[in-house]
Each structure stands twice: as C-alpha cells, then as structure tokens.
Design a protein that fits this description.
The protein is of the alpha/beta class. It folds into 2 domains: about 40-270, Rossmann fold (3-Layer(aba) Sandwich); about 280-545, no CATH class. Helices cover about 60% and strands about 10% of the residues. Strands 3-4-2-5-1-6-7-8 form an 8-stranded mixed sheet, sandwiched between helices. Helix 6 links the parallel strand 7 and strand 8. Helix 15 packs antiparallel against helix 18. It is elongated and about 115 Å long.
C-alpha cells in the first residue's frame, strides 16, 4: 500500500517514531477493512479490551469454558493477544484476514510467546461464527502492549470493553471509547469487581459519564466481585454476555454487525487519518520549499556566468597582444576576400611563431579562465544551498539523514568542467561550418584557418577585460575589436551575429548539464523524502478532502 512507503524523513525527530507507528497502524487498518469487506459472512471478531486488572483474561476463559488465557496478579499478565474461537472457525482465524501483521502460534505451544504474535486456541462453549480476542492492557507500562491492544481494536467487529468499579472513569479508557463512538462501533461495557452495595451508584455514574461523552453502548453488563477458580468465574456468571454474543454470531446478524463496523470505520477515516494527513501536508510543503531553494540557488549560475563574461575574463595581456597583432597584420586583412583556405597560409609564421600556437595559446587561456569561473560559481551555489538547508529545519534533517550532501565529493568536477569547455570550443568548428556556409567551405580542410576564426569568435564573445588595468584594457579591447573586424569581413554581420548567439546558447546548454549533475544528489534526496503521490492520493480518497488545504 502506498501509505506504507511514506518515509516521513522531513518531520521533526521528536514525533517521527509516533508518526511511523501511526502510519503502520493505518496501513493495517485500511488493509483490514478491505480484507473484512471481501468476506462479509466470515466469523466475527469480538475484542476484549480494557485497562490493567479489569479481568479480561478471566472473562475470556469463562466465556470459552476452559483456561486458554493466563491470569494472575502479576502485571502485565497478557503479553501477547490470545484468540479463542469455536473449533469450526479456527482455520478462518488462522489465516491473515484479520490481524495480518501478527504471526499465529498455537496456544498450547511450549515457551512464553513474545513480540508480534497471536496465540490461537479453541473453546467449545463459544458459539460458531465468533472469535474472542484477549488483549494486552491499554494502559500497560509496556508501550508495545498498548500498541498491540490498539491494533486489535482496529480489527474489531465488536468491542467488549472492560472497566472496574474503580477505573471506569479513567481518561485512557474514555479516550478509546470516544474512538469507538466515532467509529459507530458495537460496544458492550462490562463493569467488573462490583460490590453489591455499590452497584446502583456505579451504574448510575457510568451512565452519566457515557451520556456526557455522547457514547452509546449496545449493552452494559455488571460482573460482581467473585472468587476465581482455574482462571474462570463461577458457572453462570457470564451467561448473559455469552447469550448476547451468540446472538450476534448467527449468519444474518453477523453480516449486519460487520457491515455496521466497516461503515463506521469508513466514516471515521478522516479523523483516524488526521495526524498522518497533517504530517504529509507539512512534508509536502517542506519538500516544495527545499526544491524551490534548489532551483533558486542553481538558477543563478547561468546569470552570474553571463555577468562574469560581460565583465571579461582575465587573460594575460601579452597573449592578447600577440593575437591582436597577428589578426591585424595587413596582408591578412587585405586578403580576407580570398578563400578561407588562404587564411591559414596567411596566418603561418607571424611574430616568429606559428599561428596555430598563438590560437591554441589564446584558447587555452580562455579555457582555463572559463573553467575556474565555472568552478567558483558552482562552488558558491553549493555552499549557499547548504547554508539555506542548514537554516531550514526540514533541510537540516535532510542533511543529517544524508551526510554525503554536506561532504559532496567534487573530485570529478574539474575533469567534467574541463571536458565541458573543450567540447564547447570544439562546437565552434561545427557552428562555423553551419553559419559560414560557402565562405568557409575550403576552410573545412584547413584546421589552421578554422582554429583562427574560432579563436576570433571566442574573443568577440567575451569582452576579455576582467582583471586588467590601464593599457592592458586597451590591449584586450584591441584584440576583441580586431577579431570582430576579421570575422565581419569573413562571415558577414548577420552570420556573425548568428554565430555568436549560437555559441552563447551552446555554452549555456553545456553549463546547464553540469548544473544538473551538481544538484543531482540534492534533487535525489529531496525526491526520496517527498511524500509519494500515490500515498497523497490514498489520503485524499480516504479522507474525502485534499492533503493540501
């Protein structure tokens, strides 16, 4: 079931164990509703529940006609539930139609069963079509015991609620009776250990209390204070209750009882699911908030990169000067109208070094600066994102649950960004072929020319004045201006605009891919913590209202 997959990772640690337990209880409740609805004529389950010392095990033994449940003064006496039924119904309860989360063990098996188990026994005095479940105390000092009791009551077709002459007004019991009332459960209240002299007063006060709470019972039974022998009350003491239960177990009546129980549970579901629904709503909001923080921090990388490039990259002025002189050499500029293939010839040997070396030097300088800029921007985005998560309680819990997010492994980042920049520079050759058309048809066979033109395009794309001062700024501006002149003469103004626009777009596309890799661990963690949409849909369907307000 989708609810079972709710991680509840973003809720406060102090309440998470309770919410996880409630989630699991509700999964069992909903599963049980479906299973019981599929077999409306199956034997009823009457759950005998109540506080410590109320005599639950004694009552079950008395109704069964044999000692099947342990009794005594030691508390808690009942550590695992005991289910007793007529022999003909034993197989029905051995299956997991009810209490599917509890392993079945034979009540006569040696040893002291503990944990999530239910002991199975038979009682020949019980009417066919009915099972009695003796439960741990709802007020047990052992948390697992009252959780088991609650789980048993979730599976009940009938509540047999036991209180004593001293405990009938206890809040722990009244809280559960209110729940039974919300579920419109069929309730019989059994008051035990009643002295004859106090009976009238106790019954009147119990009636008053139930009326005040609006709790309607199907029956009230009083069991006087009597001696117990072999774990059972004297013969005849429980005949009234036994007859009432037997009447419920007839085929027509038990279908009616089960229908009432299931319908009451369905109507009570919005209240039953309230705490989990509120938690899922809060977690959905928290996940949305963290995702928005992720988007906001990494969305700035592209804009900040543009701002850095507009301000200029910090290339060495001597590199820029060599390129400016190379690109501005008069034979080059006067012969640009010849074929692009001739451009490579004209570029060879300028300034006493091959043109390819000057081109490679400029490209390497730009590449290094671009890599360092991207690394810095990504590092800043990650650092600020972690600070945002630390400031958000849900984000801090996510970081605590996923330590790798705090110590993000960046060992592969430099390699990835180098590859990104190299691939982007290689893109320019393809762009030149696409944009330049016939003007560069010959240049496709002249790598020197292509590299020179591509380098010019990169210089024009970036203003290249960042970090420079005085005359160095002029050198940078001259290099860019000369490169733009060369490109305009070679490609034409319109083609040059297209080339530069596409070059910038492809750079952004590659940077966006790297941003996705950088944020992927955070996206994965947020998505894993986000409530499953199927669970949200289940809550919406079960409560009749959306999870979000």
């Amino acid at each position: 079931m989708a609810l079972g997959g709710l991680p509840l990772a973003l809720c406060p640690p102090a309440v998470r164990p309770d919410l996880v337990r409630e989630r699991d209880r509700l999964v069992r409740l909903l599963t049980g509703i479906a299973a019981r609805a599929s077999e409306p004529d199956a034997a009823l389950l009457a759950v005998v529940a109540g506080g410590s010392g109320a005599g639950k095990s004694t009552l079950v033994n008395s109704l069964a006609g044999t000692r099947v449940a342990a009794t005594g003064v030691l508390r808690p006496t009942t550590r695992v539930p005991t289910l007793v039924t007529h022999p003909t119904d034993l197989d029905a309860f051995a299956a997991d139609r009810v209490l599917p989360g509890l392993a079945r063990v034979d009540a006569d098996a040696p040893g002291d069963p503990v944990g999530r188990q239910v002991r199975l026994a038979t009682g020949p005095q019980l009417a066919p079509g009915l099972g009695l479940l003796d439960t741990p105390d709802v007020d047990s000092v052992e948390h697992s015991h009252h959780h088991l009791a609650q789980e048993a009551l979730d599976a009940a077709d009938v509540w047999v609620w036991l209180v004593t002459a001293r405990s009938y007004a206890d809040e722990a019991g009244m809280r559960l009776l209110r729940q039974a009332h919300r579920r419109q459960a069929l309730i019989v209240v059994v008051v035990t250990h009643v002295d004859a002299a106090d009976r009238t007063e106790i019954c009147a006060d119990l009636d008053r209390l139930l009326a005040t709470e609006g709790i309607v019972t199907a029956r009230q039974v009083v069991v006087p204070r009597l001696p117990v022998s072999d774990g059972r009350l004297p013969p005849g003491t429980t005949d009234e209750l036994a007859a009432w239960l037997a009447a419920l177990a007839t085929p027509d009546r038990r279908r009616e009882v089960r229908t009432q129980a299931l319908e009451g549970l369905r109507r009570a579901l919005p209240d039953e699911l309230a705490a989990l629904t509120a938690a899922v709503h809060d977690e959905s909001e928290a996940a949305d908030r963290l995702a928005a923080t992720l988007d906001a921090r990494f969305a700035t990388v592209a804009d900040r990169l543009d701002a850095e490039l507009e301000a200029g990259l910090s290339l060495r002025s001597d590199v820029l000067e060599r390129w400016r002189r190379l690109a501005a050499d008069s034979p080059l500029t006067t012969r640009l109208q010849s074929t692009a293939e001739q451009l490579g010839t004209l570029l060879r040997g300028r300034l006493g070094r091959p043109a390819t070396a000057s081109s490679a030097e400029v490209r390497a300088e730009i590449g290094t600066q671009l890599v360092e800029t991207l690394e810095r921007l990504l590092d800043e985005a990650g650092r600020r994102l972690r600070a945002d998560f630390e400031a958000d309680p849900a984000g801090r819990r996510l970081l605590d649950a996923t330590p790798a997010l705090r110590d993000h492994d960046l060992s592969e980042r430099r390699t990835a960004i180098n590859r990104l920049v190299n691939d982007w520079q290689a893109d320019l050759a393809e762009l030149l072929a696409e944009v330049g058309g016939p003007r560069l048809s010959g240049a496709r066979r002249a790598s020197t020319a292509i590299n020179a033109v591509a380098t010019s395009a990169i210089l024009v794309l970036f203003s290249l004045s960042g970090g420079l001062t005085g005359g160095e700024v002029g050198i940078a501006a001259g290099a860019a201006a000369t490169s733009q002149y060369v490109l305009t003469r070679l490609l034409g103004e319109r083609a040059l605009r297209d080339l530069l626009a596409q070059a910038r777009t492809r750079l952004h596309e590659r940077v966006a891919e790297q941003v996705l890799r950088e944020r992927a661990p955070f996206d994965t963690a947020v998505q894993a913590a986000r409530p499953d949409p199927d669970a949200v849909a289940t809550l919406t369907a079960a409560t009749g209202r959306p999870v979000r307000p």
